[in-house]
Amino acid sequence: MSKKRQYLISFLLVCFVGGLSFTLSDLIGYRVVALLLMMSVSLLAMFFDITAVLLAALLSAFIWDFFFIPPRFTFSIGQTEDRLMLLMYFVISLLNAVLTFKIRQVQKQARLKEEKEKSLQLYDTLITSLSHQLKTPIATIIGASDNLLSREVNISDNNKELLVEEISLAALRLNQQVSNLLSISRIQSGFVRPHKDWCDIHELVYNMLKKIDIGLSSFDQGFDTCYASFIQDRLCHDGTCTVEFS
């Protein structure tokens, strides 16, 4: 909420409480009005910025002095007791506003710290998972390349083709993991926005099976509104994990 809006709401609330108290001043007395005005300032301190609350406290003190403390409709105060009460009211209102604001700041910092810790835990979990996903194809590429380049081992043409296929498949998987990392970075940066469109579930599954290089199965499903690229990546990841650990 903007500061101008906070100032306006604070002004209107204090004036409303002051006007309502003025109509009931003969019944409740001017000392009870101070409690009502202080309560309104306390409510504002729970939600608004410190400057708006301080201005509300200052305004409420002037309203109580001018409209309620005898003699009315003047800033002069007849009795010493009322002067002391006005001073104490103003000090207590300011302290209440400042302390409430500080409590809100401490709670906000605690929430931010907790959210940051959760984000770090999620980030560590993600990095650990991706580290394993990246190490597997890299190890496959290194192992197959060493076998192909080794002069001490005689490899048949058929085995060479198999090693080349392993390198190609591992490279595709490594490229997929890098693409996933880039997609995550774009999503976190806010550059990617979901775009709803009609898509065919058969096409999604076909693209997923094509990526992980397994046979295509038929699915008797219809059309649905979905985020095609996200679902395709999710299915591709699930299918890859199924093939690797089955």
UniProtKB/TrEMBL annotation:
Membrane topology summary: Multi-pass membrane protein
Main location class: membrane
Domain Signal transduction histidine kinase dimerisation/phosphoacceptor: 122-190
GO terms for MF: ATP binding; phosphorelay sensor kinase activity
Organism: Rhodocytophaga rosea
E.C. no: 2.7.13.3
Location(s) in or outside the cell: Membrane
Transmembrane stretches, start-end: 6-25, 32-64, 84-103
Coiled-coil residue spans: none
Protein name: histidine kinase
Enzyme's top EC category: transferase
